[in-house]
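Bench notes, afternoon.
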Amino acid sequence: MKVITSRENPFVKQLIALAHSSRERKKARLTVLDGIHLVQAYTDALGAVHALAVAESALNEPEVRALISRHDERHINVLAEPLMAQASSLDSPANVLALVATPDASPTPSNASAVLVLEDVQDPGNVGSMLRSAAAAGVREVVLSNTCAFAWSPKVLRAGQGAHFILNINEGVDLVLWLKTFQGQALALVPKASATATTTTMPSTTALMTLYKCDLQQSTALLIGNEGSGLSPELIDAASIKATIPMPGQIESLNAAACAAIALFEMVRQRGCV
């Protein structure tokens, strides 16, 4: 283990730069895991991390000692408290951080049983929550447009709670073009208000129905749009089904992450996984 006390240490400089810059993370293809539970989730799923940073004051904590024992000591860096505070993005700085290589996604199978597709979802918490719901529902494939929040940002990672490490996440995808290659149905989830509105961009062949009347047992790409404007007309046009979540209350729409969770677990129910 290396004990580091200087802000000028190359590892510390790299860690701080990556922790606070999406551009640096994308350039280096490295991701910062902020907090012991996220690091544990990565280690459980994918093995040892590239480099581990531990707060000096946390060295004797049983949970930290157990994590350290799973790594080569040459890759463990013990940092003074001020350095950990600079590197952590949490309000209460984490006592464990890790650097890992950002996983490379494999192509999404055109015949995938289920795919979560996100268009222009910009809130990191929403993206992370939807990734977590997808993983919980047993959906492995996720496709994001290039206007979504970066999936490997610290805020998305925290909201995902380890979901990233069991998902195949493809980012920066031209969704309309991708749907042309997908062999299953594409279900565009739209707000309640849109379900009764006249939409000139909707082709006559596109069905309009409630989510609970859709057949989700077949291969399905579930399309979720931007928090405010929803799905683009172009993506709705490309979908084979337009569906809405019935809401008998006096609210016109739900949070994007809530909509995704409802749809994903309706899929779970229909497929007899409960």
